[in-house]
Amino acid sequence: MTSENVDYGLTPDEVEFFFKNGYVKPFKVYEPEEMEAHWKKVRLQTLNRKHAVYGESTLSNGKNNNLANYDRHLDIGFLGDHVCHPKIVHKVRSLMGPNLLCWKSEFFSKYPGDAGTDWHQAESFAGVAGRPHIEWPDNAERKGTLTAWCAFTDAMIDTACLAIVPGTHNMMFYDETKRLVFDPERNNNLVKNGVHRGLWGYDYRDLQKDPNWVPDESQAVYLEMKRGEVVIFWSTVLHSSLPHLGKTQEMRLGFSSRYVPPEVRIHPDSDVLTEFGGEVSLENYGAIVVAGENNYTHNKIRDTNMLGQPFKRV
Q1: Which of 10, 21, 102, 313 lies at 20 to 30 Å from 302 by C-alpha?
Q2: Which residue(s) pair with 278 in the sheet?
Q3: What is the number of other CB atoms lying within 10 angstroms of the CB of residue 24?
Q4: What is the CA angle 104-11-314, rounded to 5?
């Protein structure tokens, strides 16, 4: 059997575990030395924004503007191949069905001394943007997106590995119809439940349905990962990170790719994206079909990246 014919999908037990807990345990996609070599090249490529889908305007607010990290799979070849990788897409397909779009990617960095990340959930992503990023059909049983979070560097507890609370994907503790206020001076590095945390200029507690509710961190699972490993989780499962304690000078870097079936509307009725104190045009944006077919017309689809290179559909 050739590698193209290998099925990397989940076993029935793994599917059952996922729907009970909201995540798939970390699995290897790249060997550590392979991931290290890829990142050395990609790191340089990220500095060249000539073909970036959102252009230079995303840098207007400096390091606080995470829009600069968005959707680089649309102009960097390795990242485009990564979001289509069969070892990832087959597993997502096991959970979400045969037809899949990748609609977003993003880097998540933690440098030595950085605060942790707030506990949060996302169903529509409207809390940050002020309008939904995604809309499921009204009769959909589940909302949100599947996120594949890849460790580009080692991610340990001391360096702010991903943390989740299993089983919380079936109950939203936050109301995304509320609007978060971008205020880095006020919101970054606040002490929350004894831990320095923030959310890139936002305080996610502002979306809580119950202002007195506190996440039960005793139930958290800390997903330590070697570079080249990936974890898949529902965006609606409670997740966060602890601070990077600075015991090593290496940053922790994760790269997330997000997937939905094509019936989901992406950036509905919007031609701009407003977040993190900045705004960018969606003129060049498009979701990509990573598996199966897209039989809908409501989403803008890209068959090639910004350099004209085709994406590899499973």
Answers
A1: 10
A2: 275
A3: 21
A4: 40
Amino acid at 68: A
What confidence tens digit (pLDDT) does each residue in 286-308 have?
A: 999 999 999 999 999 999 999 99
- The two tokens of residue 49 are 């924004």
pTM exceeding the 0.85 threshold for the entire prediction: yes
- CA dist 145 and 169 (Å) reads 11
Parallel, antiparallel, or unpaired for β 272-275 and 100-110?
A: unpaired
87-120 burial, b if ≥16 CB within 10 A, otherwise e?
ebbbbbbbbbeebbbbbbbbbbbbebebbbbbbb
List 130's β-bridge partners, or say none: none
Choose the CATH number for 3-291 among 1.10.1270.20, 2.160.20.10, 2.60.120.620, 2.120.10.90: 2.60.120.620
Whole-number Å distance between alpha carbons of 131 and 102: 20
* Cβ atoms < 10 Å from Cβ of 292: 17
